[in-house]
Amino acid sequence: MNRSVLVSGGNRGIGLAVARAFAEAGDRVAVTYRSGEPPAGFLAVRCDVTDPAQVERACQEVAEEHGPAQIVVANAGITRDRLLARMSEDDFGSVLDTNLAGAFRLVRHTAGGMMRAGGGRIVLISSVMGLSGSAGQANYAAAKAGLVGLARSLARELGSREITCNVVAPGFVDTDMTRALSETQRARILGQVPLGRYARPEEVAAAVRFLASEEAGYLTGAVLPVDGGLGMGH
Q1: What does the radius of gyration of the chain's CA atoms come to, in whole angstroms?
Q2: Closest Cα partner for 199 from 159, 234, 171?
Q3: How many other C-beta atoms lie within 10 A of the C-beta of residue 160?
Q4: pLDDT in tens, 182-213
Q5: Per-residue pLDDT tens for 57-94?
Q6: Angle at 229 between CA 228 and CA 233, to 5 degrees
Q7: Residue 187: how many CB atoms within 10 A of its CB?
Q8: Smallest Cα–Cα separation from 167: which of 179, 184, 155?
């Protein structure tokens, strides 16, 4: 393929699986990461997506090394789970700033290059919780729901420039975050999933890569669930 791909939050979990999927297809892949070690084999740029200046610099660095991003995957996210009575302003605001506004910043600084190139693909990583809601996750669910509205607005705004914008909504995925749950919590979660198992990060990555493919050229403003049936009806 040899396209310029940018994945935010690409140093672990879903983001790393997405980066690997594009690299295996022959694309030039850059990832951003906020903390920890950069993953080997990619152009890795340290970037806190809550800082507009850092996002702008990261996008410029990617453009200088790989060319302007033709595919952007907004994956960076955090959780700060609390019941409403215990959720602080910072708990709520920081999650929205990272998960929703971070995606906005990434797209804002890459869409111009796509327009000049005559097209591109944007994929936002939401969650089944953004569609169905989740007790104790009002901040996370609100941010992930907001990504759907953002994507559909961008789909309308950028469609005439041959830029598609879609959403992937994973359910429970086998990552470090879910492995930290207790056996009781894991059993309760799996009891809600019709397929009876967690998703593999590679299964989410496959959906992202499809939405960035030529075959998905007429798909925009869509929400693709990868949730084992957990979110049916939403």
Answers
A1: 17
A2: 171
A3: 8
A4: 788 788 888 999 999 999 999 999 999 999 99
A5: 999 999 999 999 999 999 999 999 999 999 999 999 99
A6: 155
A7: 10
A8: 155
Residue type, 43: L
0.85 exceeded by pTM: yes
- Amino acid identity at 73: V
Do the beta carbons of residue 177 and residue 79 sit within 8 Å?
Answer: yes
The owner of tokens 């492995």 is: 179
State how far the Cα of 4 lies from the Cα of 167, in Å rounded to an integer.
Answer: 20
Backbone phi and psi for residue 227, each to the nearest 5 degrees, phi listed first = -135, 10
Task: Establish whether 140 is a catalytic residue.
Answer: yes
Cα distance between residue 46 and residue 99, in whole Å = 17
Q: Which two tokens stand for residue 221?
A: 């403003």
Q: How many residues does the chain have?
A: 234
